[in-house]
Specification:
The protein is α+β, with helices and mostly antiparallel strands. It has three domains: about 90 residues, Rossmann fold (3-Layer(aba) Sandwich), CATH 3.40.50.20; about 55 residues, Dna Ligase, domain 1 (2-Layer Sandwich); about 70 residues, 2-Layer Sandwich (D-amino Acid Aminotransferase, Chain A, domain 1). The chain has seven helices and twelve strands. Helix 1 links the parallel strand 1 and strand 2. Helix 1 crosses helix 7, helix 2 packs antiparallel against helix 3 and helix 3 packs across helix 4.
């Protein structure tokens, strides 16, 4: 059994601690691991990336996402489907999928002419997000009509959403198959890098988390929520997150990857009885 992790370029140039621990667990279980960083490889899109049983996308760059699309077109097995990864990465597509599925999320708009938002911002504050943004980069809050004039022209598409203030805390769900975990932490510009504290997963949160996976075609993912007077609302979806703050995260993630890897080939997991050949990679 051989897996390929397509990783992000990091500074310092070391993989995430989760990836290090997951790869160590899988290697000790006899699974061969290969890794690569899209921006540091010379590849031909008309040729396979590598001969592996399962590929895992652990990078959010446009090049790595494009390579996942190449793998998808070549019929390779990806733990999170390429269409699902693309939809999660593209906030405009994600907003449509959430709305169509009836999953609670902020109201959204799309335009390149911000003047058209004047009537909307008179009714409610808005937040502007780069459609492929992450970690809060490029986000702007618009509270009054006058604020629209302060926004420089943007070359890339932007998702506009109603601004929900919440309670000042981040609530994130981490999902591996049918296992759902939740962590909470005070909001800050760098809170994405903080582990947070585990909190109980209510039936409502579990339902939202699993429905997101079904809609996007993901089985290893994160869901960011904001808690409002009308209940929790989904504000972001991420494929293969860091599972920061989840107790035993590496063991949970490694176990899910192992199950998917053997299921992709219709093979029994060593030490287990059977795995159906028809079992899907997503729940």
């Amino acid at each position: 059994m051989k897996l390929y992790f397509l990783l992000a370029r990091r500074n310092p140039p070391l993989p995430s601690q989760l990836v290090i621990e997951v790869c160590d667990i899988l290697s000790r279980r006899g699974i061969e691991i290969e890794t690569g960083i899209a921006e540091e490889l010379l590849l031909r899109p008309d040729q396979p990336l590598a001969d592996c049983d399962l590929y895992l996308l652990k990078s959010y760059t446009e090049l790595s996402l494009s390579l996942a699309g190449v793998l998808h077109a070549q019929g390779a097995n990806l733990l999170n489907s390429y269409p699902g990864c693309y939809a999660a990465r593209n906030k405009i597509v994600a907003a449509q999928l959430l709305a169509a599925a009836g999953i609670p999320a902020p109201a959204s708009w799309v335009t390149n002419d911000l003047e058209l938002l004047r009537s909307v911002v008179r009714q409610r504050p808005l937040i502007l997000k780069p459609y492929m943004g992450w970690r809060g980069e490029g986000i702007r809050v618009i509270r009054r009509e006058e604020d629209l004039a302060t926004i420089p022209a943007r070359a890339e598409p932007t998702l506009i959403q109603e601004y929900l203030s919440g309670n000042g805390e981040d609530l994130r769900l981490y999902i591996a198959g049918d296992q759902v975990f939740a962590v909470r932490k005070p909001f800050s510009p760098t809170s994405f890098a903080q582990p947070g504290s585990p909190v109980p997963v209510s039936a409502e949160l579990r339902d939202i988390g699993l429905r997101v996976g079904e809609v996007f075609g993901l089985s290893l993912y994160g869901v960011d929520l904001i808690e409002t007077a009308d209940g929790p609302k989904v504000i972001d979806v991420n494929y293969f997150p860091g599972f920061k703050g989840v107790p035993g995260a590496a063991r949970v993630v490694a176990g899910h990857i192992e199950r998917c890897a053997y299921a992709s080939g219709g093979l029994p997991i060593p030490g287990c009885l059977t795995v159906s050949k028809d079992r899907e990679l997503t729940p």
